[in-house]
Amino acid sequence: MVTIGMNYKVLPGKEEVFEKACTGVIEAMNGIDGHEKSFLYKDVNDGQSYLIASEWGSENAFNDFCQSDKFKQVTNWGKESILAGRPSHTVYKQ
């Protein structure tokens, strides 16, 4: 089991668009082989900072999902000009 922390900083005024897109990403993860559960968190001290915490059976299962067409269909960050910078992912191994 591995937990992936996906950290995002969004542009001011884009919070609602980002949250809606994340809902789509989390819904897309449901039923993916190796995915257990995911949650979206918003920093109470910085309204533009978010974390998706996602539990996977293995790091490879997560990496496979990130390369999938399903993931690409729900992540149009560049097209929508939502993110303030490049997202960072952290792997927490148990």
Automatic annotation (TrEMBL):
<dbReference type="InterPro" id="IPR007138">
    <property type="entry name" value="ABM_dom"/>
</dbReference>
<protein>
    <recommendedName>
        <fullName>ABM domain-containing protein</fullName>
    </recommendedName>
</protein>
<dbReference type="InterPro" id="IPR011008">
    <property type="entry name" value="Dimeric_a/b-barrel"/>
</dbReference>
<dbReference type="Pfam" id="PF03992">
    <property type="entry name" value="ABM"/>
</dbReference>
<feature type="domain" description="ABM">
    <location>
        <begin position="2"/>
        <end position="91"/>
    </location>
</feature>
